[in-house]
Design a protein that fits this description.
Length: 582
């Protein structure tokens, strides 16, 4: 059977996305005796498509964080294996020693994808993406739950078996000794019988030979049985040694070195953290920081800490990547809840950062609440506002009373949104909006309300046509005056500007060879609700002229012949800008 056939592979989806995703509880459970079989397979996606990554373009690793048997956080960074780069599939085999350490805990993991690692890409492309978190559980294997009583019974059974084997060996050795004595006695009897009983020599010889043969057979049988028993016991012991069930004392050190277990000492033998009263750490000394062991220890009278830190003594924890290019220090001052971090990335140490500031005390932020926690403005029930001018600073929504004059609100029985800004000595600006009525008002209150602007409606409509050019009519020449760089004269054009209910119209005329009592231009009729008349600029020695705008859009020019020293002719010009409201 191939090893791949027994692997326990859990598939987890990862997303390269900035949007919040709840930490994914994968429902996966591994056991602390899963050896090289606990596999996490990640399917990485971006915008619902596979993210194509491999060791050719990125470095990908996963950080796992669980809890050890003492209740302390225990984390480890692990590299992934690229399974299918085109479909964004990578995998990670969770080491057995890590499963043993975080037994009976929930492990939280997070994936990091970096374009810059080990200086294999330019520094300007050192981008890193942090993907969504996931969770899985680690449980204790059932075999580890065998009681101590059962284990003691097995040990006693083995001791009884050993005593029985020793007893049998003693019996066999005694039988062999007795057999040798018996043979010697038979030979003595034979010798004496030969001397004393010559007449029965043949019979005695036969008897002795028969007895001797029987005795020898008995001895051989006893010996063979003893040898087989001893050989069997020897083979049993040798097999146990070959199967690693028995370890020599001299082999114990090497045996433990070959096993997967936590070989790095993290605490004292009694479980307490390290502490050396003579040790002084200078956090500005990079060589000293690099030489520190990865563990948690208590340090005193340290240097190079932030100037406003509560104490220069406290708990120090160091984490470091195997290649030493990335290191993290966490310092918790004595009798303080603050946590400070200092990190090294690619041989460069950064400055101290506070991990958990007192936001109320340490940070400059908007401490006055203008909205609800979900960002919506505060709703005040209908009729609860007695006087809108007394509202404290903030954003509000309410429904005005059927008669809202008592509330000093300009709209009756309407949903209104109110914004109140307040300065010193009661100076206020109040903005009121009715989304249903498409109306907006503002109100200004000076010091302690001694000057009140009242409600001023802001026009909801603003429009500007811009200058629209046109040509003069009936032989008049257009845009002839002030055309040099000093004058930069305007051209014949008209314009309409709408600001709420206020409509302002503009007309520009520039030209010459203009005949009196002649229509010189035509503008849109809607611009002229009532006839308008204006006096343009004309030559100082020529008669004065004036224009009339009619409601049909016609613009006529007339000459006042009683003025000027010279007559009006084709060389005379007219220039001017005029405005009016309807």
């Amino acid at each position: 059977m191939a090893s791949e056939e027994i692997k326990k592979t859990a598939v987890i989806n990862m997303y390269d996305s900035p949007y919040v995703k709840a930490t994914h509880d994968s429902g996966v459970v591994f056991y602390n005796l899963d050896i090289a079989t606990a596999v996490l397979e990640f399917h990485i996606k971006k915008d619902n498509f596979p993210l194509q990554i491999s060791d050719k373009n990125v470095d990908t690793y996963v950080y796992l964080k669980g809890t050890d048997r003492n209740g302390n956080p225990y984390g480890r960074q692990l590299d992934v294996e690229y399974i299918d780069p085109f479909n964004g599939i990578v995998s990670l085999t969770v080491p057995n020693d890590y499963l043993q350490t975080v037994n009976n805990s929930t492990v939280t993991g997070q994936m990091y994808i970096s374009l810059h690692r080990d200086n294999r890409v330019p520094e300007t492309k050192s981008d890193t993406a942090v993907l969504n978190e996931f969770k899985f559980k680690v449980r204790d294997s059932l075999i580890n739950s065998i009681s101590g009583v059962t284990k003691i019974e097995y040990i006693r059974m083995f001791d009884k078996l050993r005593d029985e084997i020793q007893k049998r060996i003693s019996d066999i050795e005694e039988a062999i000794a007795n057999g040798e004595d018996y043979v010697a006695e038979m030979k003595t009897v034979l010798s004496d019988g030969t001397k004393l009983i010559k007449d029965t020599a043949d019979k005695a010889v036969d008897t002795v030979n028969t007895t001797s043969d029987n005795a020898i057979n008995t001895v051989n049988t006893t010996k063979d049985s003893a040898v087989n028993t001893i050989t069997s016991a020897r083979d049993e012991v040798l097999n146990a040694i070959n199967d690693n069930e028995v370890v020599r004392k001299t082999e114990m050190s090497g045996y433990f070195d070959e096993q997967d277990w936590q070989k790095y000492k993290l605490t004292n033998d009694d479980g307490t953290s390290f502490y050396d009263s003579d040790m002084r750490i200078d956090f500005d000394n990079n060589e000293q920081l690099d030489s520190l062991h990865c563990d948690t220890r208590y340090v005193i009278n340290s240097k190079g800490l932030p100037s406003n830190i509560p104490s220069n003594s406290g708990w120090l924890t160091k984490y470091s990547r195997q290649d030493g290019n990335s290191t993290l220090l966490i310092f918790k001052p004595y009798n303080s809840s603050y946590l400070y971090t200092k990190e090294k990335f690619y041989n460069t140490w950064g400055d101290w950062k506070i991990l958990n500031p007192n936001y109320e005390k340490d940070l400059n932020w908007q401490k006055y609440k203008f909205t609800e926690d979900d960002g919506t403005i505060k709703y005040i029930s209908k009729g609860s506002i007695t006087d809108v001018k007394t509202l404290p600073p903030g954003f509000y929504e309410t429904v005005s009373n059927d008669d809202a004059s008592s509330q000093d609100i300009p709209l009756d029985n309407s949903y209104v949104q109110i914004k109140v800004w307040e300065a010193n000595e009661g100076r206020k600006e109040i903005e009121l909006t009715s989304t249903y009525n498409n109306k907006k008002y503002f109100r200004l209150l000076h010091t302690n309300g001694d000057r009140d602007s009242g409600w001023i409606e802001v026009g909801p409509t603003q429009e500007d046509t811009g200058w629209i050019p046109f040509q003069l009519l009936n032989g008049a020449q257009s845009n002839t005056e002030y055309s040099d760089s000093l004058g930069n004269g305007f051209k014949c054009s008209y314009r309409t500007v709408v600001n709420g209910s206020l409509v302002t119209n503009y007309l520009r005329i520039n030209g010459r060879n203009i005949q009196t009592d002649t229509v010189i231009a035509k503008i849109p009729e809607k611009m002229v609700k009532h006839a308008q008349t204006f006096i343009p600029r004309t030559p100082t020695n020529r008669p004065m002229g004036y224009i009339i705008l009619y409601t049909n859009g016609e613009v006529k020019f007339f000459v006042n012949s009683g003025t000027g020293t010279a007559s009006w002719d084709s060389s005379a010009y007219m220039y001017g800008e005029f405005s009016w409201t309807n």
